[in-house]
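Name: Helix-turn-helix domain-containing protein
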Amino acid sequence: MSTVLKTKHVGRNISRIRELRDMKQEALAIAIGVSQQTISNIEGSETVDDEKLNAIAEVLGVSAEAIKNFSDEAVFNIIGNTYNDSSSSAVNLGCTFNPLDKLIESYEENKKLYQQLIQAEKEKVALLEKLLKEK
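Structure predicted for Helix-turn-helix domain-containing protein:
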C-alpha cells in the first residue's frame, strides 16, 4: 500500500475560504477586476498563478500561504477547540438591562402622560364653564 501525497487543490481552497467569508464569486471578481466566469475557472483549477493568488488572498483577508495550506480539518479542529458551550458557564447572554427597571420607567412615563391628560381636560372644562357664564 503506497502513501501518495495528495496535492492541494488551490482553487477549491479559494472557494472554501470565499464561502466561509460569505462572499459570492461575483463580489470577488469585482474586487480583483475580473469576470465571475474567471473566478469560477480559478476555483476549478488545481493551481493558480502567484499574481492572481496574491490578489485573491488580499481580498479574502488571508495570506497566499493560508490559501495554499487550507484544510477543512484544521478549521473543524479550531472550531472544536475554541467553541465554548455557554450553557455550562455562568455567562448571561440574555438581557443587558433589568426588565423591572424598564417596567417602572414605562409606568412613570404613563403616569406623567395621564397627569398631562387630566390637566388638559381641566383646562377644557374651565374654558367651557367660562363660555357658559358669558352667555
